[in-house]
Amino acid sequence: MSSSIFLKTIKGEKCNRPPVWFMRQAGRVLPSYLKLREQYSFQELMNNPQLAARVTLLPVNELGVDAAILFSDILVVPEALGMNLVFTDKGPVFSNPLKDKLENINSLKAETNRLSHIYETIGLIKNQLSDNKALIGFCGAPFTTFCYMVQGNSASHSFPEAVKLIYSDRKLAAKLLALITELSVEYALNQVKSGIDAFQLFDTHAGLLPYELYIDWVLPFAKTITSSVRQAGCPVIFFPKGLAGGMKHIGYDVADYVGIDWQDSLAGSRKIIDKNVGLQGNIDPRIFSVNNKQVLFAELEKFKDFGKANYNWIFNAGHGVSPDNLFENVKLTVDWVKSTEWNR
Ligand code: CP3
């Protein structure tokens, strides 16, 4: 059995504290990352296996988190489908968004060798990661990836053209979702083969759709990915941000764990979600921007009762940490989770 508290917990073992890691921990909040960014662009860091492995390990060493998350991006999948991507100060931008020429969906083709450097990165990370830490691989869920591919950028967080395509041409939308799903399954399974210990599927924009449409029509694509990864023996966390009332439909058939955003409480979510599914989350990451330790510790105290009664829980934030978060607050949070007496 692994000595990693993250892996023990995700596999159902009762541990004396929750494991802790953060979405977006590998960039943004770390002074050492920001320093590296003065020298290299984000894409240079991501595409060079040595550098990507180094960045992946920074938060393990500097924050003391229990798991590393692969330093990459969900948008490598559209790139491998032939789309041209640049990361600008305003976020990712595709030069040829599908909304401008929807028939281009029919000519997208997977070039799987464009992802092979990522498998090399995973190998390098695993060689350097100690046994008591886990490596999380990931990709974007088909719907979130679809939003970026159709809209071309995230200037409007409502991705209007992407949502419109689902209502106006269900068949073409399904074709694109199926293409993304097919490549994502291959990509995820190669991550498993390369040595990841767990996998997270990010559906950051799940909340854009009425949840019945999401559950009936979009979730099956995501489930194709989660099922393939679980069949390969790798535990899966699913993060459908903003799904709200739709969370009651996320059962053990979808994932081992589900990420809870900061809108609902963990206790509230626990009441509506299948008992066999563990929870991950959900401190509001904006609290990390407040320069007042009392505010932070008061918020952390609120997790004590939940953590005492629930051992199938991974401590995380309700969304990613961001550059305006204070490194010290994130570090204090990790230390607090690890040093608290959880009375389990
Ligand atoms: O800890 C980590 O950061 C792990 C690696 C990781 C990145 N992106 C690196 C990254 C992961 C897991 C992602 C996922 C991702 N990327 C998502 C889903 C999760 C989420 O946070 O909602 C989405 C929607 C994207 C697309 C994306 N990439 C956006 C919208 C942006 C710009 C805004 C932002 O979040 O910074 C990125 C850029 C990005 N991806 C950076 C990093 C470290 C910042 C690059 C920089 O240094 O400027």
Question: Which strand-content bin applies to the residues?
Answer: 5-15%
Number of helices: 14
What profile does the largest beta sheet have?
Answer: 7 strands, parallel
Structural class: alpha/beta
Order of helices and strands: HHHHEHEEHEHHHEHEEHEHHEH
Query: Would you state the CATH class?
Result: Alpha Beta
Strands in their spatial order, largest beta sheet: 1-4-5-6-7-8-9
Contiguous uncertain segments of 5+ residues: none
When the domains are counted, the total is 1
Through-space gap between termini: 21 Å
Work out the number of β strands: 9
The CATH topology name reads: TIM Barrel
Would you kindly provide a written description of the structure presented here, covering whatever features stand out?
This protein has 344 residues and is α/β, with parallel strands linked by helices. It has a single domain, classed as TIM Barrel (Alpha-Beta Barrel), CATH 3.20.20.210. Helices cover 44% and strands 12% of the residues. It has 14 helices and nine strands. The protein has helices at 5-10, 31-39, 42-47, 49-62, 76-80, 116-128, 142-151, 160-168, 170-194, 211-231, 266-272, 293-301, 304-309, 327-339, and strands at residues 67-69, 85-88, 91-94, 134-140, 198-203, 236-240, 257-259, 278-283, 313-317. The strands form two sheets. Strands 1-4-5-6-7-8-9 form a seven-stranded parallel β-sheet. Helix 11 links the parallel strand 7 and strand 8. Helix 4 (49-62) crosses helix 6, helix 7 (142-151) crosses helix 8 (160-168) and helix 9 (170-194) runs parallel beside helix 10. The longest helix has 25 residues, at 170-194. It is globular and about 60 Å long. The mean pLDDT is 97. The chain binds coproporphyrinogen III.
